[in-house]
Every structure is written in C-alpha cells, then in structure tokens.
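About this split. The held-out portion is used to measure sequence recovery: a designer receives only the structure tokens and must propose an amino acid at every position. Recovery is the fraction of positions where the proposal matches the reference. Here is one held-out target exactly as it appears in the evaluation file.
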C-alpha cells in the first residue's frame, strides 16, 4: 500500500490532492494549521470522509508548516500508523499581497517560514525515511508567480523561486538514490487561499488572459500532482511542471489583424 503525506490538506489544492491520491489507492496523512477555525475543522473532516469513502485510510493532523519538529512528527505518524512513507507533497503555504516597502521583517519571516522553510523541513523528513526504504516521490508546489512575477507579491514570489531551487538541487542530490523531486507550478486556482486576492476585476483579468478561458479548479491541479507521483513520471526528476491553462504563454496585447 502506498502512503502519502499532503501538507495543507484540509482545503483547496491539498484537499483535492489527498482525495486524488486516495482514488489511486494511497493511504493519506494530511496536515492542517494549528488552532483551526470551525470552517477549517469542517473542511478537514470532509477530507477524511472523502478519502475513507474511497476505501483508504486517512489521518489528518495539526502541524505548523514552519516548525521542523512538526514535519518530523508527521513523517513518523505516516510510518508508525500507516506503515510507510512513499510520497510527500509540500503544499501548505501563505499568500501575502503587499507592496515591497510595506512588507515588514515580520512579514518576510512569516512567509519564508511557511513557504520555504516548511518545504525544507518536509523534504528533509521525507528523504530521511525514503532513504531507508528504497526511495519515493516528492512534489513541491511552486507557482507561476515565480515565473511571471506579480507586483505586490515580492515575498511570495521570492519564496516560490526558492522552492524551485530547492527542488532542483535535491533532484540532483538524491535522484540516484531512488528519490525523485519535482515541482508543480499552478496558475490561477479557485482556493480559499485566493478568496480575498481574487477580486472581481482580478478574476476578469485572469479569465481574459488564460487561453483556456477560466480559472482552474483544485482538482485539475491535483491530477497533475498525482501524475508526478506516479510510475508514468518515473523518469521525471527536477522538473517544474506548469499547470496554468497557458496563462504565462499569453503575451497578447490586442493587436488588430491586418
């Protein structure tokens, strides 16, 4: 039985990924934030119910993404309670929309803590166990914001760039030891993380710029993540798969045809 860890699995892309992995037969350990509100607790319960309805096991645990000990504890839960650790998806993240000169040192520490160090800690915990058991698959969620930067997202874009570099170095360092490390860069996705940032005008701009004409559903991103964890991607290592409906390709500015 395959055992997968998905951070930030209570909602959004993480929830969809946990369910998609379970559909493929994986048992899942998911994480959610410490001190969740009632809405997140209800969403976490939905994740567990959806995974178990597919006939696999699910443990959803509280974990601070920026805490090294939390990552080690989550990995140990996967091994001790579900019997192994084959897949680790680093998904938990924070979004901060703020001009560069208004981004405080505390803001930087918070964003980098969850969005970079959380991924470092997750990769480290996963690799330690995977080396002992013949390998595994790690997927780090980056963003097209790291490829096509947006104003007022300095900390977020910087963090996603760092995660891409982390992914590539680990792919080189551990590829020969049976561990593939890849990144998945979503474009615009309808998730709770983006609920405030996606104002009506932002949504309209995305829909006009994305060649397929719409913002993604979390399930569409989850399917791409599952691909990177599957045998179909067994020779993919150190890649950043862009899943954005063609958004970053569109340089159209409205030129009229002659």
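Reference sequence for scoring:
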């Amino acid at each position: 039985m395959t055992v997968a860890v998905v951070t930030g699995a209570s909602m959004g892309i993480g929830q969809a990924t946990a369910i998609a992995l379970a559909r493929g037969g994986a048992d899942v350990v998911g994480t959610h934030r410490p001190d969740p509100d009632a809405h997140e607790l209800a969403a976490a319960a939905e994740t567990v119910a959806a995974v178990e309805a597919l006939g696999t096991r699910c443990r959803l645990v509280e974990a601070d993404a920026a805490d090294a000990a939390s990552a080690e504890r989550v990995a140990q839960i996967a091994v001790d309670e579900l019997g192994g650790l084959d897949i680790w998806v680093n998904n938990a993240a924070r979004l901060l929309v703020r001009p560069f000169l208004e981004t405080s040192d505390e803001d930087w520490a918070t964003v980098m803590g969850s969005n970079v160090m959380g991924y470092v800690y997750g990769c480290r915990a996963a690799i330690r166990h995977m080396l002992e058991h013949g390998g595994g698959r790690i997927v780090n969620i980056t963003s097209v914001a790291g490829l096509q930067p947006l104003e007022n997202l300095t900390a977020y874009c910087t963090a996603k760039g760092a995660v891409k570099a982390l992914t590539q170095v680990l792919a080189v360092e551990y590829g020969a030891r049976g561990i593939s490390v890849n990144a998945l860069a979503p474009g615009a996705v309808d998730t709770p993380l983006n609920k405030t940032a996606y104002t009506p005008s932002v949504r309209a701009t995305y829909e006009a710029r994305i060649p397929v004409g719409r913002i993604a559903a979390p399930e569409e991103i989850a399917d791409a993540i599952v691909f990177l964890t599957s045998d179909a991607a067994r020779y993919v290592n150190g890649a950043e798969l862009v899943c954005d409906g063609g958004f970053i390709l569109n340089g159209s500015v409205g030129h009229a045809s002659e």
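Annotator remark: Residues 3-189+218-246 form a domain with the Rossmann fold fold (CATH 3.40.50.720).
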